[in-house]
Automatic annotation (TrEMBL):
<keyword id="KW-0812">Transmembrane</keyword>
<keyword id="KW-1133">Transmembrane helix</keyword>
<dbReference type="InterPro" id="IPR036396">
    <property type="entry name" value="Cyt_P450_sf"/>
</dbReference>
<dbReference type="GO" id="GO:0005506">
    <property type="term" value="F:iron ion binding"/>
</dbReference>
<dbReference type="GO" id="GO:0016705">
    <property type="term" value="F:oxidoreductase activity, acting on paired donors, with incorporation or reduction of molecular oxygen"/>
</dbReference>
<dbReference type="InterPro" id="IPR017972">
    <property type="entry name" value="Cyt_P450_CS"/>
</dbReference>
<feature type="binding site" description="axial binding residue">
    <location>
        <position position="445"/>
    </location>
    <ligand>
        <name>heme</name>
    </ligand>
</feature>
<comment type="similarity">
    <text>Belongs to the cytochrome P450 family.</text>
</comment>
<keyword id="KW-0503">Monooxygenase</keyword>
<keyword id="KW-0479">Metal-binding</keyword>
<dbReference type="GO" id="GO:0020037">
    <property type="term" value="F:heme binding"/>
</dbReference>
<keyword id="KW-0560">Oxidoreductase</keyword>
<dbReference type="InterPro" id="IPR002401">
    <property type="entry name" value="Cyt_P450_E_grp-I"/>
</dbReference>
<feature type="transmembrane region" description="Helical">
    <location>
        <begin position="12"/>
        <end position="29"/>
    </location>
</feature>
<keyword id="KW-0408">Iron</keyword>
<keyword id="KW-0472">Membrane</keyword>
<dbReference type="InterPro" id="IPR050121">
    <property type="entry name" value="Cytochrome_P450_monoxygenase"/>
</dbReference>
Length: 503
């Protein structure tokens, strides 16, 4: 009877008052600084979550800074920054800014695994210890030993391009770059390809599983409740196809470790090197921990490399003058006996225009499209002349910084590889300091060298052997279609291919 006596208006007022208390009161009492940005973002992370889900946040982030300046409020305690000195403070060596809550959405609720799962590891000291323990596995001096594995994949990739050329069939180069990147990671990590290149398909839906996991994680990280339940929403590491593959290769690696056949050890893969580490370094890692290390390679090294390859090669294909200059450099080096086929990494580093093209392509299309969130340490911090209390989330988006004209010039939106060659030393130093494609400081992607190795070997090989022409009217406008779910992943890089007869 009492409920029946409540008027319909009252039923509307009660939730409205509740929403007011939940969203508006915390805003009024918050010590977080006032800053320009979307109105709704002052009260809730829902605006940011919705924009993340739309899939083009990197564009939104760049536009907001161009409209409002160096500080943008994206949530009640989330601030995007665009400033050189603030970037150095947040990400520089010795920083006290730990990773923010957002990264917890990619954590696995297993203490043993979290000891080696470096991406979501927030504690600065624990991360430094883990990175120190395994850094030798990712050092360039170790990775050059993997070049024969990459050469195997380049040969298969080249055969597939040749087949499409003979059949005069167009192909989606962005998709094939991903197949290549996956199989290279398989070779490097396990001495065995997944088989993506041979089949031209996403075997077992592994690539789809990664995409589905990222769709959940990149939004869930904004909300503590979703972080807690995220492991039950989807977990790529539990993918049956991938789990069986890793399990089988781990057993094979253990058998190789016990073999006396020296030939088994001539070019040890990542897994074999991990198993060979001194006991005090690997702390008798369990199979689950070793599998996690392998998983990190696949998760971090496949999409990032394929996105980077697509970003760089799109610039080459759509700019005839860039292709002509790059091809002249590659052909001249080959004619002089200074370039193998495929080239070694050391040889590719001696081609200045190639390296400039790669770096400029990575600048204009970095793989990640969200701010790299960090938590303000105890005592607070003053950034861009504004005080931020402890616990506030601050971050810089690589897309924002890479389009900053004070760093990269008034032509920051344009592709100009020469900026990495002809800029004054002090300008070049700032450009390099703010180059965020692989992160910055102590949290720089540990797999950076793997990606650069793959890119630097494949691109000159393709430039020398194939004429590749864009076959996508929409992309001819200057950018491939893409969707952002942490990674800014392109699609529909449709091309036609001819094998060069004059190389």
């Amino acid at each position: 009877m009492l409920l029946n006596s409540v008027s319909p208006t009252t039923w509307l007022v009660i939730p409205a008052v509740g929403a007011l208390v939940y969203f508006f009161i915390p805003f009024l009492i918050s010590k977080n600084p006032r800053a320009p940005g979307p109105f709704l973002a002052r009260f809730t992370n829902l605006w940011q979550a919705f924009k993340y889900h739309e899939g083009h946040f990197e564009k939104i982030n760049v536009d907001l800074h161009r409209k409002h300046g160096n500080i943008i409020r994206l949530g009640p305690s989330y601030y995007s920054l665009n400033d050189v000195e603030a970037t150095k403070t947040i990400y520089g060596l010795g920083t006290k800014f730990m990773k923010g809550q957002w990264y917890e959405s990619s954590a696995v609720p297993d203490p043993e695994i979290m000891e080696v799962n470096m991406f979501p590891m927030r504690d600065i000291k624990k991360h430094a210890d883990a990175r120190r323990r395994y850094a030798s596995l990712y050092a360039m001096s170790s990775l050059v030993g993997y070049e024969p594995y990459i050469n195997n994949c380049i040969a298969i990739f080249s055969d597939k391009l040749r087949d499409h050329a003979k059949e005069r069939k167009r192909l989606d180069l962005s998709a094939w770059f991903q197949l290549y990147a996956f199989d290279v990671i398989g070779e490097i990590t396990f001495s065995k390809r997944f088989g993506f290149l041979e089949t031209g398909k996403d075997i077992g839906g592994i690539m789809h599983s990664i995409g589905a996991a990222l769709d959940i994680m990149h939004v869930a990280g904004l909300f503590k409740l979703l972080i807690l339940i995220q492991p039950y929403l989807g977990n790529f590491s539990k993918d049956n196809t991938f789990s069986k593959f890793v399990s089988d290769q781990l057993e094979a690696a253990k058998k190789r470790q016990g073999s006396l056949d020296a030939e088994d050890r001539t070019a040890p893969d990542f897994l074999s090197k991990l198993l060979s580490m001194p006991e005090q370094a690997k702390k008798k890692d369990s199979d689950s921990v070793i599998s996690t290390m392998a998983l990190q390679n696949v998760f971090a090294g496949s999409d990032t490399t394929s996105i980077s390859l697509t970003g760089v090669y799109f610039q080459i294909v759509t700019r005839p003058e860039v292709l002509a200059k790059l091809r002249a450099e590659v052909d001249a080096a080959y004619a002089a006996g200074e370039l193998s086929d495929p080239p070694t990494y050391a040889e590719s580093l001696k081609l200045p225009y190639l390296q400039a093209v790669i770096k400029e392509g990575l600048r204009l299309h970095p793989a990640t499209g969200l701010p790299l969130w960090r938590q303000v340490p105890e005592g607070g911090a003053t950034l861009c002349g504004t005080y931020f209390p402890a616990g506030t989330n601050v971050g810089v988006n690589s897309w924002v910084m890479h389009h900053n004209p004070s760093v990269y010039g008034d032509d920051a939106d344009e592709f100009r590889a020469e900026r990495w060659i002809d800029s004054p030393k002090d300008k070049l130093r700032t450009m390099n300091d703010m180059f965020m494609t692989f992160g910055l400081g102590s949290r720089t992607c540990i797999g950076k060298n793997i990606s650069l190795l793959e890119i630097s070997k494949l691109i000159p090989h393709m430039v020398r052997r194939f004429d590749i022409n864009l076959d996508n009217a929409e992309a001819k406008c200057g950018r491939l279609p893409s969707r952002t779910a942490w990674f800014v992943k392109q699609k529909d890089f449709h091309v036609t291919i001819k094998e060069r007869s004059d190389f």
